[in-house]
Design brief:
Length: 128
C-alpha cells in the first residue's frame, strides 16, 4: 500500500475522531483512538515505536519514539498543543529520516478545525 492511500485513511480517521472527541484531550487519548481506528481499517499499526539512532555504523538507543508507525513506513506524530511550531516539524522530519520513510503527518488535535492542525511532511532525503 502506498503512502498516499495511507495518508488519506489517516486523515479520514483523524477527522472522525476529532468530530467525536473535539479538542482539549491529552495526546495519548488521540493516539490510542487513532491506532484503534486504523487497525479497524486493516492497517498494521505500532504505537510508541522505538527508533534507533545510527551513528558511525553503531546503533544507539537514544530514546526516540514514533507516536504511530503505519505499515512500517508512514509516521504520524500527534500533538495537542496551542499551536504547532518549528520544533514539532523538526521532530517528525528526524523520525522520517531515521526510519527512511517518505511521508508522514503531524496532527495537532487541539484546534477547532482539524485541517488547520494537520501538516503533511515529506522526507526529501528519502531513498527507495
Amino acid at each position: 500500500m502506498n503512502e498516499e492511500v495511507i495518508a488519506k485513511e489517516v486523515v479520514d480517521s483523524a477527522l472522525k475522531i476529532h468530530r467525536v472527541l473535539g479538542p482539549g484531550l491529552l495526546e495519548s487519548s488521540y493516539e490510542s483512538c487513532l491506532a484503534y481506528e486504523l487497525k479497524k481499517r486493516g492497517f498494521k499499526v505500532e504505537s510508541q515505536k522505538p527508533l534507533p539512532l545510527i551513528y558511525e555504523e553503531v546503533k544507539l538507543q537514544a530514546g526516540y519514539r514514533v507516536d504511530l508507525l503505519i505499515e512500517n513506513k508512514f509516521i504520524i506524530e500527534i500533538k495537542s498543543v496551542e499551536a504547532l511550531n518549528d520544533v514539532h516539524l523538526a521532530q517528525i522530519l528526524t523520525y522520517l529520516k531515521l526510519n527512511n520513510s517518505k511521508l508522514g503527518l503531524l496532527i495537532n488535535f487541539n484546534v477547532s478545525l482539524l485541517k488547520n492542525g494537520t501538516r503533511r511532511v515529506i522526507n526529501k532525503d528519502y531513498t527507495n
